[in-house]
C-alpha cells in the first residue's frame, strides 16, 4: 500500500514541475542584475564559465582517480591558488585569456586523465597551483573595484572548492572497472576538445 | 527496501527531464556565439550519414572485440578525429577526404560483418587513420562566429555518443542471435559506405 501511494504521487509532482518549468523566466546570473551581492556573483560567474569549469573538472577527475591523497591536495591547493591569482590579477592590467594556453590546459590535464597517468603527489599539487594561479589571475583582471571584487573572488574560490570536492570524492569512491574507464573517456573528450580549440585558435589568430 | 528507492529515483529523473526540456535560455554571458556553439557543435557529427555510419561501426566493432578494445577504440577515435579537425582548422590540406570517409564505413562495416579480430594496436591504428579524414572534413566545415570552446565540447560529446550508441547495440553480441544481428548491421554499414564511395567517385 505504501509503495502504491508513493508512486501515485508521481503525476502530481510531474504536473507541478511542468507548471513551474513552463513559467520559468530567463536566468539573470550576472553581476549587474542579480543583486545577490559580490560573493554569489563570483560563485555564479564560475558556474557560468565553461572555460573555467572544464579544467577544474579535469583536475578533480585526475586527482580522484589517483586516490584520496591527491584529491585532498588538489582540494586545498586549487581554490587557494585561484584566490591568490585573482588577488594579483585585481591590481594588474587587463590580460585577455590566451586561447593557446586554454587549449593547452585541456590537452594536458585531459591527456593525463585519458592515459591514467601515474602522476606524483607533487605534480598534482603543481598542476593545481598553476591552474589556480592562471585562471584566478584571468578572473581577477576582469573584475572591477577591489573591495567588492575581492569578495567575488572569494565566492569564486568557494565554487571551485565545492566542485573539486564533490567530483574528486565521487571518483575516489569508484571501484568498478567500467566506471574508472568512463572517467578516462571523459578525459579523452576533454583532450580532444583541447585539440579542436588549438586548431580554432590558429585559424582565428 | 529497494522498491521505494527506485521510485524516488524515477520521480527525480522525471522531474529533471521535464525541467531540462522546458528550461528557457540563460542570458548570462554576452560572448559571441556562445548560446549556439554547443548545439551547433553537437549537431555537426550527426548531420552526415557517412560520418554516423563509421562512428557507430567503431562502437559495434569495439563491442564485438570486447575488452580492452571496447573502450580503446572509442577513446582513440575522438582524439585522432580532433587531431584531424585541428589540421583542417589550420588549413593543412589532406587529399581524398571523401574517399577516406566512405572507405572507413566500408572497411569498418566489413570488419564487423566478418568479425575480424586483429591485434589491438592494428585495430586502433586503423580506426585512428580513418578518424583523421572524418576530423579533417569537420574541421574545414566549421561555421564562423561560434564559441570555439562550446562548439568543440559539443562536437566531441556527439561523437562519443555515437560510439556509445554502437557499443550499446553491440551488447547483443553475448547472444547467438545478437552475433548474427551485429554481422548484418556490419554488412549494412559496409553497403552504406560503398554507396557513399560510389557517390564520391561519380
User: What is the average of the pLDDT values of chain A?
Assistant: 85
The secondary-structure class of chain A comes to mainly alpha
**Total count of domains of chain B:** 1
The largest β sheet of chain B comes out as: none
Q: State the total count of DSSP E strands of chain A.
A: 0
State the end-to-end distance of chain B: 64 Å
Number of domain units of chain A: 1
> Which parts of chain A are unreliable, with pLDDT below 50 for 5 consecutive residues or more?
none
Compile the SSE list and pairings.
The complex is a heterodimer of chains A (205) and B (202).
Chain A: H1 2-8, H2 10-22, H3 31-34, H4 38-47, H5 50-66, H6 68-90, H7 99-114, H8 121-141, H9 146-172, H10 177-203
Helix pairs in contact in A: 4-9, 5-6, 5-7, 5-8, 5-9, 5-10, 6-8, 6-9, 7-10
Chain B: H1 2-22, H2 34-43, H3 49-65, H4 69-90, H5 97-113, H6 120-140, H7 148-170, H8 176-201
Helix pairs in contact in B: 2-7, 3-4, 3-5, 3-7, 3-8, 4-6, 4-7, 5-6, 5-8
What does it look like?
The complex is a heterodimer of chains A (205) and B (202). With 205 residues, chain A is mainly alpha-helical. Chain A has one domain (37-203). In chain A, 80% of the residues lie in helices and 0% in strands. In chain A, 43% of the residues are buried. Chain B is mostly helical. Chain B has one domain. Chain B is 78% helix and 0% strand. Chain B contains eight helices and no strands. In chain B, helix 3 runs antiparallel to helix 8 (176-201) and helix 5 packs antiparallel against helix 6 (120-140). The model of chain B is unreliable at 27-35 (pLDDT under 50). At the A-B interface, helix 1, helix 2, helix 5, helix 7 and helix 10 of A face helix 1, helix 4 and helix 7 of B.
